[in-house]
Amino acid sequence: MMLATEPTQVPSAGGEQPCALELRALSKSFTLGSGLLRKGRKLHAVSEVSLRVPRGQVMGLVGESGCGKSTLAKMLLGLTSPTAGEVLVDGRPIAGANQKALARHIQPIFQDPYSSLNPRQRIAQIVGLPLRVHGIGSPKEQAARVAEMLDLVGLPGRAARQYPGQLSGGQRQRVAIARALIMRPALVICDEPTSALDVSVQAQILNLLLDLKEAFGLTYLFISHDLAVVEHLADRLAVMYLGRIVEEGSREQIFGAPRHPYTRALLASALTPEPGLGVPDIGLGCGQPDPSAPPSGCAFHPRCPLAEANCERHRPSLNDAEGGGRVACHLA
Amino acid sequence: MNDSLISTPGAVADGTWPRFTRAVLGHRGLALGAAIVTLLLLAALLAPWLAPHDPYLQNTANRMVLPVWHEAGSWEHPLGTDRLGRDYLSRLIYGTRISLFIGLVAALISGLIGSTLGVLAGYFGGRVDAVISYLLTTRLAMPVVLVALAMASLIGGSLITVTLLLGLLLWDRFAVVARSATLQLRDAEYVQAARALGCPLHHILLREVLPNIAAALIVVATLEVANAILLEATLSFLGMGVQPPLPSWGLMIAEGKSYMFFQPWVIAIPGSALFVLVLAINLLGDGLRDISAPGGRNE
């Protein structure tokens, strides 16, 4: 795999303009249960993930819980360092760059709005924190920008003086969005930003994210396990399984003609609001394998309905597929 | 849960304090403890105006005067006098100052040491945690009274020595609580968000972590105040703590112990005072723990 994947089909990449975000064979492994004398087992949370996110696009990243999505997000935010590979933001590697410089380019929106806001600080303090840490503007200008930002995310001005405990989940997520965008970063990592919210509130937050993307020309990496949400938002999609990307393509490709059996199973597993259908049988058989002892060959073969002998022995590489996109499957 | 502001404009003002006072008054033990502690604090602060006599003034003509409830007692000395003729009530009131001073200052010192170590161990984990946990186990392996006695006899007991010794010995519970509370917070998303912003370390530890573990530390602090007061009394009783003629309650018990079979009130009075103070502080600590226990996600 590696770098053999020039995106030929990306519409707005615009020649030599660097991507907003590029991952090159990014890997992260943890050592489990190591003691003084014992050598621990290696857990490969993320393995050789290569991905390009063109500027102004929304890249959806989907996969089951525990497939390495959040570890990937942490590496992008500079919260953990990768074991191998590199992350490029606007064509520049982030390794060695200081956290403050990185913070001006990338900001996170986290999953749980109940734990992403410090319960002991007022909303104005929380939203204004980036400005204070980076020394942008006088206290007066900072207060003005906080008020402006709160207005942009649709919060009333009086929320500035309240504590997170006095706000609802949707409002809290708006605060988290305001904090992430107040420094006008180019890239926002959304780590399941709606999965902790009511369905009715989810749509409001998603539309807010889309509006702000248009207003500020943002690029999103949108991590989710909710396919309906991703379909609503993403321009392109990457599907992760056990730390690897198994398929990548435009939204139309993934939803219209999925090529990897895992992608097909994921799409089949989405619950529909139609009554009487029950829980869909996705035909995956057993649960997700232990990530610290992944299956040989194609990691998906024990659950794959189409698996052949070859799948057990050789791991398929992520190759360009016919009609655009990339897929890692011997049979595709 | 809808997406409009729950609170009306009139209720925007921070409602934390009224809620806090209501919780204090609703908890009987806490209210009682807080009331007694407040009274004793006032007694300590206003000692020069409350005490009927000079606590150091000896009057050999008036030795071992009985308290007012005895037939021979008088309102001149409501709690009688000691073997040197000093007014017992005045000494008791001034003794409140010693006990509370040692309790509060020792808890403050140990709180600073223990919370710092605990927060660092919890936040960094790994090797830092291993070193600090080793220090903690070492400290837990030392019997406090024995070490304090030995050190006090080495340096010489005094108010300052005892305070410092206790401050340096009682940080273990702070460290344990701060460490485990910080461990839970380290991966909280707001701490992650602050890290992703490039916040300096002191900001993360002092502004994001500390305010959110403060409730647990305050509970430990109240219990350690009581602990330090008891230990001071113990050391003073054994002659290695506060030195005469300072009116420490432990010292008053020690000085009265040769009379205890004939005049039991000489040790019963400072003993009861000690009991009431420590009980009140423990009630306060337990009550604070009860009302600060996680009641929901919102606080």
Automatic annotation (TrEMBL), chain B:
Domain of life, per lineage: Bacteria
Transmembrane segments: 30-51, 98-124, 144-171, 213-242, 262-284
Subcellular location(s) of the protein: Cell membrane
One annotated Gene Ontology cellular component of this protein: plasma membrane
Chief location bin: membrane
Family assignment from sequence similarity: Belongs to the binding-protein-dependent transport system permease family.
Record's protein name: Peptide ABC transporter permease
Organism this protein belongs to: Halomonas salipaludis
Taxonomy of the source species: Bacteria, Pseudomonadati, Pseudomonadota, Gammaproteobacteria, Oceanospirillales
